[in-house]
Amino acid sequence: MAPKLLASTFLVTCFLSCAVAQPVPARKKPNILFVLMDDMGWGDVGFRDSQFHTPTIDGMYSQGVRFNNSYTPPNCGPSRAALLSGVYPWRMGLQGNAINSGSSAAIPLGRTILPQKLKDDLGYQTHLVGKWHQGFCKTEQTPTERGFDSFFGFYLSKQDPFSHLSKKDAYDFRSDHEVNRSVAGQYSTYLFSERTRQLVREYKDSLASNADTKPFFIMLSYSALHAPNQVPQHYIDQHCADVSDHNRQIKCGMMAAVDEGLKNITDDLKAHGLMDDLLVVFTSDDGGDHEEGSSNWPLRGNKRTLWEGGIRVNTFMYSESRDILPETNFTWGGLFYISDFYATLSGMIEDTETRKLPEIVDSYNQWTYIKTGQTTGTNRLEIAYVDQDLGVAMLRRDQWKLLYMQSRHPGWYNPPPGVTAREEPNRNDLPKYQLFDLDRDPEETTDVRKDNYERYIRMAASLREVRRMAVNPIDEDLHSDPDRFDGVWSPGWC
């Protein structure tokens, strides 16, 4: 072979081998803003009720990935336990009202929860802003001991949003472990939004001085729309004056305050050039309480029930980056449970299609379907829930939903203006089991057991097995007493 040909062949070979040897750049991990609402009804937002002023939320919803079949437990504590652990709460005895001010109940300390997974395995800085409600009888149960780098918020299930007094008129607000009395008198929604803005500024400053700054996971856990119904009057005057029902008018103002906070946060992210690195997740921990002015219309039922209005919630993902969300502006109809966020966020960060994490028994990775824009299909085939305290249970399989002993709040409540409410059924007339086809009847108007008897028999047998497996709710009263801690709800009493 001629020398020139040998040389050219060597150069080509070197070029190809060097090209192959170049490392593939790691996929950039997105920052995550996880917005968790509290008791937000299906109809408590502008894209479902035009009287509500939520343009920021509406815009992200319209341009994001909308989850049409997103479910939670029917009340706050179990829902947050499922989100953080990836496990059905009835496997841990955390259904019902187990996690309360007088109980040691909490996700078992030996279980790795979502912020620990993100921090220790996936390289995130993690922050909780707002409501915790996952136990605090000992320090090991509190947020900064369970994987959050920082905590700014409160321990219990609810509080006065201005005074931050909770049960027994005791104070409940912390910065990390320290009691924070400087916020007394300031509205909680404003405080939580401003703390999130502060975290964003700190992240931007860290980026400017340190190229190795970890991506952030901020769980913005608003206490709105949970009772008590309170909001600064100017939100009502500016945005909700036309809402005739008094309680619903206040809910409207509370949502307007949330939307303003999210606008300010996203405006800051845009100003700092961070929107292209951001995934926003928005959901609620359960449905709304119609007696407090929320609306789940046209869904049936209420918070603390297994009707659709108690457990089916508004959920969406939003990003301006196609590297994060390759497909947007579509409604995904796959079955999703709040426990699925554990595996789905992990799958999105690692860009893996692994269906389940082996140690997380009730969390399914739905990232395959979300990223490709599929409007149907899911890794989850069914949802099961048991609450022995309420005496109820539920199994959803495909479009079929079987209810057991569901009698509380059996009606359809707080319809929008101009819509006539349905007549509320007599709860004494409700059968022990009811079967609904949610594809044809999402409002649960017609029990179809008789026309689908064999399906009903199979599902009833499955539901009985679920009820047999469910751990009884943790039921104890340790008489926690804030008077022992200078009138502050504090750990150290169990």
Automatic annotation (TrEMBL):
Family, as annotated: Belongs to the sulfatase family.
Keywords: Calcium, Glycoprotein, Hydrolase, Metal-binding, Signal
UniProt-recorded Gene Ontology molecular function terms: metal ion binding; sulfuric ester hydrolase activity
Name recorded for this polypeptide: Sulfatase N-terminal domain-containing protein
Entry cofactors: Ca(2+)
Organism: Littorina saxatilis
Domain Sulfatase N-terminal positions: 30-320
Domain of life (superkingdom): Eukaryota
Signal peptide boundaries: 1-21
SUPFAM superfamilies xref list: Alkaline phosphatase-like
CDD domains assigned: 4-S
